[in-house]
Amino acid sequence: MTLTQHQYVDRDTGAVRSERPFGDWIVNYLYCTRREQPPLVYQLLGSQWFSSLLGWVNYDFPLGANASGIHRFLRNCAVNLEECLERPEELDSARKVFERRIRYWRCRRMTEDRSAVLSPSDARLLLGSLKETSLLFLKGKFFEFEELLGADKPRWLQAFRGADYVICRLTPDKYHYNHTPVAGIVRDFYQYDGQYHSCNPGPVVTLAAPYSKNKRVVTIIDTDVSGGTGVGLVAMVEIVALMIGDIAQCYSRTQYDDPCRIEPGIFLERGCPKSLFRPGSSTTVLLFQENRVRFSGDLIRNLYRTDIDSRYSEGLGRPLVETDVQVRSTIGRQKTQGGVR
Known about the structure:
- By secondary structure, this protein is of the alpha+beta class.
- It has one domain (16-334).
- Helix content is 24%, strand content 24%.
- It contains 12 helices and 16 strands.
- It has helices at residues 24-31, 33-36, 39-45, 48-60, 67-77, 94-98, 104-107, 145-149, 154-159, 201-206, 297-303, 311-316, and strands at residues 6-10, 16-19, 116-118, 123-129, 164-170, 177-179, 184-192, 216-222, 233-240, 247-249, 267-268, 273-277, 282-288, 293-295, 323-325, 330-334.
- The strands form 3 sheets. A 10-stranded mixed sheet has the order 2-1-15-4-5-13-9-8-7-11.
- Strand 1 (6-10) and strand 2 form a beta hairpin.
């Protein structure tokens, strides 16, 4: 099978980078059109058993724990050890590298502007809209809105009609803690036990709305409160993929200390660690109520670049390019006037 190159824009440098998705050949082999149709195969690929097996082979298999293998893994993932809280010798397995903590208060500084919306993760980011008159309209391309939030949640389905959204795709080399993108009070918190399909760009385009089919945790945050970001309701949807067995909720206001449970009524400060994806690929989707957020101009400009080979552009028939962003960097602001629709 010929694999299409996948490129993205590095936000810090503006450089165009190439990505070869982790396990690309086997993921594309498993998800190619001829093989994904048989019901039993499709169910196997999306099962927790199969996902757990892949995770064990890639992150816990004993032969992977030797020193040369770990050093090679660190090199290939370009992990900056100076950022890590753990000492290099403590990162002695692929799982520990994946679940590493960083000194985010030093190396991922955030703006003091309280109206700013932050990236929830170190990720490759896409923007979109569910409003048909928006320039960012991409309804039904990555997820089915009703499935993503839950057909049994009419209050939130109504609140987020015509929403703008951000998709943050975490590759296996990334720092895998999610941080709070906004400040506000949690109004709802719930989970759907879906399947475990890949977040690799190939299968995402091939399969119908894969993010809304996967296991996911939904947090509804009301930011129109005292001390809040002031961008209305925000839905933060944390989505598991292949090799992800769990999303550990570990919200902490001070570094990683004294994590507490997420539950309705709790006030979330902006930029704090909220959750940890267990090993594998994963995605976080943010939904914003219509006309409440103005996305950063560079992210929108990168989205429509035609000089970049993106699998999304090829699969969706229009320019659609990811930008590589850092957690706690500004991706939008409270919309007071103007903005892109």
